[in-house]
C-alpha cells in the first residue's frame, strides 16, 4: 500500500481547497491510505485519497470525444451526522484536443464555435460531489488495480458493493463543474465550462464558451 510522499505546492493548495469546500458542504486508488484533513462543522474529519494519476477521453456538448485528458485526482470523503457520506473528487491536469468538433459545438448559448484542430493543448480543473449511502466506510481499504481512481472502483473498494453513490443513480444530489482553458494556438475562443446538477434522468447540464478555431455567435 503506497503512502503519501511529500506533495508539491499545487497539490497542497488543492488539498486545502478541498478541506474548506467539504467543511462548508462542498465547493469536482493505488491503495493509498486516507489522510485525516480539516474538521468540518459536524466535528468529523474529512479523509483524502490520492492523488491518482489518470487519463480519460473527454466528451463535448454533442456527446462526442473532443480531447484526451491527463490529470491527477484527489478523492474526499466527509462523514455526516445521518450516517451517510459526502463524497467527491477534485481533478486538475491538462488536455490535448483530438478534433474535429469543438467541446461547445452543440451549445445553445452565445460565444461558441464548431471546430477545433487536433493537437491544441490546455489546462483544466474541476470537481464532482455527491452522497454515498449504504455499505460500510473503510478508510484503510486497499486497491491494487489500474483503475483505483475511477469512481466505481473507489466506491466499491472503500464502501463495499452495497453502497450507492448519488452521482451514479437518478438523483438531484450530485453537482459538478469543470473549467478548461487554452492560450493562443490560433484559437478564436479559449475557455469552456461544463457544469451541472443531478444524474441520470435528473441531470441538468450547462455548457458555457468553447475552445475552438471558429466562432459562430
How does the SSE layout of this entry go?
Elements: H1 9-23, E1 35-39, E2 45-59, E3 65-79, E4 85-97, E5 121-133, H2 151-159, E6 164-165, E7 171-181, E8 189-199, E9 204-212
Antiparallel strand pairs: 1-2, 2-3, 3-4, 4-5, 5-6, 5-7, 7-8, 8-9
Your description of this structure?
By secondary structure, the chain is mainly beta. The protein has one domain. 11% of the residues lie in helices and 43% in strands. The chain has 2 helices and 9 strands. A hairpin with a 5-residue loop joins strand 3 and strand 4. The longest helix is centred in the first third of the chain and has 15 residues.
Number of strands: 9
Structural class: mainly beta
- Please identify the oligomeric state: single chain
**Unreliable residue stretches:** 1-7, 21-43
Radius of gyration (CA) equals: 18 Å
Question: Which properties best describe this structure?
Answer:
217 residues; mainly beta; disordered N terminus; 2 helices; 9-stranded antiparallel β-sheet; 9 strands
Compact overview of the structure:
The chain has 217 residues and is mostly beta strands. It has one domain.
